[in-house]
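Protocol step 4 of 5: obtain the predicted structure for the target chain.
Materials: sequence only (see below). No template structures provided, no constraints applied. The aim of this step is simply to have a reference model before the mutagenesis design in step 5. Sequence pasted as it appears in the construct record:
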Amino acid sequence: MDATLTLVDLAGLIALLLWGVHMVQTGVQRAFGPSLRRFLGVALARRPAAFVAGLGITAILQSSTATGLMVASFAAEGMLALVPGLAVMLGANVGTTLIVQVLSFDVSRIATLFILAGVIAFRRGGASQVRDLGRVGIGLGLMLLALHLLLQVITPYEDVPSLRLLLGALTTQPLMDVLLAALLTWAAHSSVAVVLVIMSFAARGVVPPDAAFALVLGANLGTAINPLLEGSAGDDPAARRLPMGNLLNRVAGVIVALLLLGPIGRTLVVLEPDPARAVADFHTAFNLVLALIFFPALTPYARLLAWLLPSRVAAIDPGRPLYLDAAARETPTIAIAAAAREALRMADVLETMLAGARAALIGGDRRRVGETRRLDDVLDRLNAAIKAYLTLLDPESMSEADHQRLAQVLAFTTHLENAGDVVDKNLLAHAAKRIKRGIAFSPEGGAELDQMFARLVKNLRTAASVFLSGDLATARLLAAEKETLRDLEARATAAHFARLRAGRIDSTETSTLHLDVLRDLLRINTHFVAAAAYPVLEEQGALLPSRLRPNDETALKEAAGDSQEIRQIDQPSQG
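Step 4 output (structure tokens):
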């Protein structure tokens, strides 16, 4: 019964440790997610800094396993390059040995301090970032508390007679010692706890020094298994390069150390008569020597890992930016041109969305509704990526022309994204309603909508041309399309009412739907004009501030019911 309860305690504490790791990861990503890639690229670009960072993180977390899990997740998401990632892990491996040296302090007190500070920040913090940092504090406290309790659960079993007999039988099998310690470390998620127990066994003479050193090698091997199994859940082999690299250098070090275990053991016993201290020193020396050997060879080692674990060739993600080169941000003119090129991809996506909405509305194609909705997500992702990219440019290094072009790019992408929202939330909703009810537009009504869609596609292509070239004459033609579409909408509305007066059942069934679609198509065209034509016309001084005649009361009354449209059409959207 006691053994069962102990296993339950062990499983629960491992779960607590994993939940603490999860809280730290999510807290850090929520608090610093947008700038995390840039921070890591600058702070960890050099291997020495990455090594020190790994050592420091492990000193804070008190677990190289936790550090490995987090660094592996960052590398899998592309936030950390392979070479600095490997350097971080080398530093973490050394950092965990320092913890063994100084773990005579009461870790539980530090854990409660982290939890207290984290709860205060989470409950009282007004800013979201403060609450996220509070989450990090709670997660760190839970991790430290779990490690401390793991040690308390495992330690009482060091004096059990049956365990002493088992360990005595294993003393003549160094390989079995390595495998046993690796298994225990993998299960406990803590090499610190396992090494401390080994130190206790050695101090009490339960195991001889050579067996204790072999068990330490196993603990070092086991702590590298968890990030490999739990840190990369995807199916891309490239995501496993970092944890696999950390495991392979541990395996190489363990093999060499096993071959030299006899001479090493005799030397350490002479230099350090205290068996417990000899175990701690062996643990530290193993990781230091491993770091010194692999640190200079990280670049070719990373190339070997890339060759062994090539990236999986996947279908191109349409929502992933293709032209937003981070290096180009050093030259704003080039960066803005790259953003403009990416914005043209948004125009292509929006044209596909219009084709899908056209097929769903007029043709009743149910499949195109779902496909087109997914494209709106692509449009949103591209728009967000472009904005995030442009906001990282240094305003002081930009000329007036650069600022003006940047504003044009942002206006273009914002209006295209807004037009996509009209397609997604309005046109596709109309299409789904039409299909669900099993109704169809009249042949004349369908032709009118088809004509409007064709005109919209033409205007979208013209908008992309104006955005790219800045041609004033083409911008005037695009602006004139506002009146053309308005006339088409007015004629289609009048024809629709004529069919209603004639008692056409097919027009009666779709009356409200038909009129709503016409107004939404006009709104989409307004976004096209504001996205490309208005910025060029405004720059050339060819855009009037208002279509209203001064002091014309009649015009004001006529426009009162259409003020929303006037604001949308005659004033460029500010995003």
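Step 4 remarks: The radius of gyration is 33 Å. The first helix runs from residue 2 to 43.
Proceed to step 5.
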